[in-house]
């Protein structure tokens, strides 16, 4: 009997050891699976946010005033791009015959060994819109057959910090080797101190995240001093030797964009005296379309960019004033008028400083207005 008892006690001990041995593994597996599920849900929410970028409506606040405003995906046309040597950085934007459109450039970049693509352009060419569309496209493609499976992360630098970027990346990455397409928009829109921190982070990213690709958008004009070489070295372009310039639309693309928007033709735009330099930039085409819908286009005849800015500033400020009145919010009329005048003067000054030359007649018309 004693032998049987000893055998039973031995089996019980073995059973206890086996249970105690399995429990931590089961416990760990449970929480590992739970964390994995949570990360999948976080990733899906992020992908949905990226997909929604194509639904963005520029000047959406005016929809009640002028009617339906389409999301950018309905009228966006991929800009042509040209490859330029980093030695030409100081020369700023130049007009060249295009090689390929921006979407093709990014596809080639993702298949290459390069880590960083620097995309520079003049004001109004469509850097941010192109970035939103690209992020949305790769979010839609993620997980599909024959997809390159990059998780897009679009961030406007003016709204985030270096730490925000790292937190976002760590939040959505399923593994250390996850393929990430990080799009940092508007390097020129932040302070020089913030810019240096971002560039330092980009340099770190190239080593910390094995499968990350980074697109940086900016206007020309940053790092035009002795720090230029350091800038290209830190973002990994010194050896590569080139960046890409986002070009204005061709006339064919401009016409096509207006057709998608509807209600305005390129011939109408030309008859107003709007130059090719202006109407081949998506921002001006879109603003002209908005002003056409608001019934203010004819007033622009002969004014060029200054007229576009002035007319739009008037339209927006009057609409805001109407909203204030509708909501019965009482503001001092003197302050409201002063703020409106400040906006108008900013618009005029910006136009004057951006333009290479304004005709004397144009100067006179602006001052009279």
Strand-helix topology:
Blueprint: H1 2-51, H2 63-66, E1 80-85, E2 100-101, H3 102-111, E3 116-121, H4 127-141, E4 151-156, H5 162-172, E5 180-185, H6 192-208, E6 212-219, H7 228-234, E7 242-246, H8 251-261, H9 266-271, H10 276-279, H11 282-293, H12 304-326, H13 333-354, H14 360-368
Parallel strand pairs: 3-6, 3-7, 4-5, 5-6
Antiparallel strand pairs: 1-2, 1-7
Summarize the structure.
By secondary structure, the chain is of the alpha/beta class. It has helices at 2-51, 63-66, 102-111, 127-141, 162-172, 192-208, 228-234, 251-261, 266-271, 276-279, 282-293, 304-326, 333-354, 360-368, and strands at residues 80-85, 100-101, 116-121, 151-156, 180-185, 212-219, 242-246.
What this model shows, in words?
The chain has 369 residues and is of the alpha/beta class. It folds into 2 domains: 55-246, P-loop containing nucleotide triphosphate hydrolases (Rossmann fold, 3-Layer(aba) Sandwich), CATH 3.40.50.300; 264-368, no CATH class. It has helices at residues 2-51, 63-66, 102-111, 127-141, 162-172, 192-208, 228-234, 251-261, 266-271, 276-279, 282-293, 304-326, 333-354, 360-368, and strands spanning 80-85, 100-101, 116-121, 151-156, 180-185, 212-219, 242-246. The chain has a 7-stranded mixed β-sheet, sandwiched between helices. α8 (251-261) packs parallel to α11, α11 crosses α12 (304-326) and α12 runs antiparallel to α13 (333-354). Mean pLDDT is 78; it is low at 323-332 and 355-369.
